[in-house]
Backbone:
């Protein structure tokens, strides 16, 4: 018997994406379909989502609210990009241009608490009463945007089982405490054991304290979340809930990221096929020939990602004849610093968001650098593995779980697939870059690592089974 699951999220690739969350939410329905999970995705009706739904023939109205945080809401049932979706059509909350989280001033929309409380409210209603012909047995909530689901479900007297996946503990979804009533939350839960966080409401903490089961996106990050260094002030809560927590590693969409069939590159199925892509990349960016490896980065530009450390360690790469090509957008100071670094003829920075270029960089680069201070899972190192682009990563979170470090033992056994460094500092990164360049100069060792990387499993198979097992343990209908 298949199990019905409603995935509740603020982004879903390919329709609306700001980061890896969207990739994962978009990949899960197909991955889980293969292990007998009937998954639908509940998504806010931002303009691109409404447009995609309209293009797919519109949706059927399955649920309505006359007034949810200041306006009427309809829930539309439809199929977009092959994914069964329930779209929350609430123009007063979602019909806005630009970023899905930020206003034109670059700050969070002031009503973000209401915008995502509405998503959670609708999820809870569906978890309680279902929609015509379908009732979820599990509500799978993603990050703070779905953190209030268990509170709203409890108010209704329960329904589906609840799972919350933490993709990033850095974002708590805070709201001023005086919005408790407006957000239709129970005052009794405004305590240190509930959703109170230093005098504010925290949507993430609400979820962490009430959900049936908690997961995060790698086993190492699951352990890290119990510590003050990574718990972002919620490590105590995580320790309390340790028994409910597990780490399930993300996979990648193996169709979209398949070097043998990728329409955005010159396809290849052996490392040798990378040469044409590297040459094309050099031409595209006017990069001269060089002795060392061409290193690439595809990243949001935030403190999390450690690109300031990379800029500090950059001389180590250039001294070895290496090159750097970065694609990213985010914090203005980091964007400026990258532009400044790109004055060097062996450095390129493309500031912006560009799906096609991300494929060309990962196909054409020799190595992909991910020097994150913390990384719940990380996807670009997985793309790197699949494309034979050697990952050089910080030893943290999912980066620790997915790359086999070129230690002397791993090299002797011929199993290494990349390079890891620790601690996460510019000094350690510079040493790791040196190690990468040594490996690069040893052509046989490098070729072996490329073959290992391309053979490493990075799909959803194992993790889909893990989620399915978790859903079965959590499933409930009343
Ligand atoms: P995070 O979710 O923390 O940003 P992940 O590595 O999990 O990190 O996922 C990032 C996703 O966003 C990947 O699919 C990556 O290719 C993509 N990405 C990030 N920045 C850009 C960009 N500037 N252009 C295109 N894709 C990007
Ligand atoms: C978050 C994390 C990233 C993870 C992604 C998908 O954005 O920063 O490490 O891969 O979510 O789970």
Residues:
């Amino acid at each position: 018997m298949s199990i019905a699951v409603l995935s509740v999220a603020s982004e879903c690739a390919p329709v609306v994406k700001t980061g890896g969350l969207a990739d994962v939410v978009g990949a899960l329905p197909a991955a889980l379909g293969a292990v007998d999970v009937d998954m639908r995705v509940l998504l806010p009706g931002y303009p691109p989502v409404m447009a995609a739904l309209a293009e797919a023939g519109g949706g059927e109205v399955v649920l309505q609210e006359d007034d949810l945080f200041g306006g009427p809401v309809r829930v539309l049932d439809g199929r977009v990009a092959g994914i069964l979706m329930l779209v929350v059509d609430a123009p007063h909350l979602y019909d806005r241009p630009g970023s899905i989280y930020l206003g034109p001033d670059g700050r969070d929309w002031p009503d973000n608490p209401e915008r995502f409380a509405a998503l959670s409210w609708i999820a809870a209603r569906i978890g309680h009463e279902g929609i015509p012909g379908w009732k979820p047995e599990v509500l799978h909530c993603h990050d703070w945007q779905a953190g209030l689901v268990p509170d709203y479900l409890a108010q209704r007297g329960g329904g589906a089982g609840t799972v919350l996946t933490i993709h990033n503990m850095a974002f708590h979804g805070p709201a001023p405490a005086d919005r408790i009533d407006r957000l239709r939350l129970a005052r009794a839960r405004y305590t240190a054991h509930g959703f109170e966080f230093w005098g504010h409401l925290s949507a993430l903490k609400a979820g962490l304290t009430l959900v049936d089961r908690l997961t995060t996106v790698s086993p190492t990050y699951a352990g890290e979340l119990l510590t003050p260094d990574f718990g972002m002030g919620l490590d105590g809560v995580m320790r309390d809930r340790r028994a409910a927590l597990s780490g399930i590693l993300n996979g990648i969409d193996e169709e979209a990221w398949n070097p043998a069939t990728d329409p955005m590159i010159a396809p290849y199925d052996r490392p040798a096929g990378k040469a044409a892509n590297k040459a094309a990349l050099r031409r595209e960016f006017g990069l001269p020939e060089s002795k060392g490896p061409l290193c690439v980065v595809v990243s949001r530009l935030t403190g999390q990602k450690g690109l300031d450390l990379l800029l500090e360690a950059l001389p180590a790469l250039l001294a070895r004849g290496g090159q750097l090509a970065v694609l990213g957008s985010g914090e203005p100071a980091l964007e400026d610093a990258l532009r400044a670094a790109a004055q060097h003829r062996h450095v390129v920075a493309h500031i912006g968001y560009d799906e096609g270029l991300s494929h060309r960089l990962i196909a054409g680069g020799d190595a992909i650098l991910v020097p994150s201070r913390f990384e719940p899972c990380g996807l670009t190192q997985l793309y790197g593995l699949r494309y034979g682009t050697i990952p050089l990563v910080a030893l943290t979170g999912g980066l620790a779980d997915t790359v086999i470090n070129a230690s002397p033992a791993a090299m002797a056994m011929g199993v290494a697939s990349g390079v890891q460094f620790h601690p996460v500092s510019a000094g350690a990164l510079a040493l790791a870059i040196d190690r990468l360049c040594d490996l690069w100069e040893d052509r046989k060792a490098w070729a072996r690592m490329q073959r290992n990387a391309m053979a490493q499993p990075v799909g959803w198979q194992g993790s889909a089974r893990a989620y399915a097992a978790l859903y079965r343990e959590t499933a409930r209908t009343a």
Q: What stands out?
A: The chain has a mean pLDDT of 97. The chain is about 35% helix and 20% strand. Residues 19-21, 23, 298-300, 327-329, 353-355, 358, 377-380 surround adenosine-5'-diphosphate (ligand 1) (CB under 6 Å).
